[in-house]
Amino acid sequence: MLPTSHPIGGSSKLRGKSRSSLLWLYLRRLFKPSQMDFQYTFWTMLQLCVSPKTAYRHTSYHKQTKNHWARDDPAFVVVCSALMAAIAVAYCLAFSHSFGRSVLTVVSAVAVDFLAIGAVIATLGWGLSNKFLRRQNQHSHAVEQSVEWMYAFDVHCNAFFPMFLLIYVLQLALCPILLMHSILGRVLSAALFAAGSSVYWYITFLGYSALPFLERTEVFLYPIGGVAVAVPLAIVLGINPTKLVLSWYFGYIP
């Protein structure tokens, strides 16, 4: 009988070559907007808000058709970066006092808040899942699978978008209430940040649990427990997350 898969050593070389070509394709499309599927990106963003499981169900279809889990289209990252820049400009118009500080804030929002911190979280999730969460192969001839770093970053991007709508967009709209010198402002601000953080970790959990070769992915839900403890503590201590964030970026004095 012919073997049904490649030996593990050979498959690892093939995977390495495949990932290199995927990265090259990804970077090449980054400079060719005509090759980006923005329609599918906006559909995915909608599903992440109304039915995130549906969005990840299409991830498995992507694996079946292209033999990798990660996106080969940077449209999602481009759209999220543009949205981050736009909301940062809106905050600057509302709270900033200088053009130079506004430019720095916009660059920081995209390069640090979204991309750099996202890369760190993706790297931690990638390392954790590959080292501790992979199922042990039951068959000696089975191809060993692992989480692609680019997929881990996709998971961050997916989880970031609904959080962005809550913590960035909705917060700006509710600022007149959130900045009130009352317990109502503190409670609403803490609740908003708790909802955004919880949604982020829930969608992160869905992203890793969509991979059939991982187990115990509920560890990605554990940070929600920390959020549940932090919210009442912040309210009791009189901490308003919105005021803290505005103070950090704009020197806002309550």
Automatic annotation (TrEMBL):
Task: Provide this UniProt record's keywords sorted from A to Z.
Answer: Membrane, Transmembrane, Transmembrane helix
Give the InterPro entries listed for this entry.
UNC-50
One Gene Ontology cellular component annotation held by this UniProt entry:
Golgi membrane
Q: Where in the cell is it found?
A: Membrane
Task: Assign the protein's first listed, main location to one coarse class.
Answer: membrane
Task: Report which superkingdom the organism of origin falls in.
Answer: Eukaryota
TM regions (residue ranges): 75-96, 103-128, 159-180, 187-208, 220-239
* Mode of membrane association: Multi-pass membrane protein
Cross-referenced Pfam families: UNC-50
Q: Which family does it belong to?
A: Belongs to the unc-50 family.
> What PANTHER family does UniProt report for this protein, alphabetically?
PROTEIN UNC-50 HOMOLOG
Q: What is this protein called?
A: Unc-50-like protein
Q: Which organism is it from?
A: Chlorella vulgaris (Green alga)
